[in-house]
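tool=predict chain=A
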Amino acid sequence: MINPTQAQPESLKDLFFSFSRLATQGFGGVLAYMERELVERKGWLTREEFLGEWAVARTMPGPAALNLSIMVGARYYGWRGALAAIGGMFMFPTMLIIILAIGYAKFGEHPRVVGALQGMGAVAAALFIATGLKLLTAFKTNPLGIIVCSALTGVTFVGIALFHWNVVHSMIGLGGLGCVMAYFKLKPKS
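tool=predict ok
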């Protein structure tokens, strides 16, 4: 449901170029850029809406960032918005990849190129962590509360990082547990 007072894309062109900018900035992971662009900069989604849409986008087949772009485009302009968002996500990045592939084929062995790529990996990891920390503020409005959400997050992180749990099984198991707990918490008392 779109809040009438909430900002929205000015046009299909705005949608196309916004997702083009996101896609070209998001090498190594677009989550940090999408959250900043869609929530903080453009205001097209609230943080809670972003988290909900991102969760749905991750469960759908295909890249989550592309799924989210389709959902946002369709939210404001229907099928035309979805196509504009997809076009934005693919056009400039595809051209950039072709140019970078040609450059990498020629200069990929150069030590400065190798060092630059390693540095970009560290920056991408830091952006991902920073975005995760910013999204923690949504715990305040979660029906399970901060303690339960933090516990589920902590168990998931420890299980995957230290015990090498399968991510899909963790999502199904712990995510399913969280869904069941939220269902009973939100279920009207009769």
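The mean pLDDT is 87. The CA atoms of residues 24 and 97 lie 9 Å apart.
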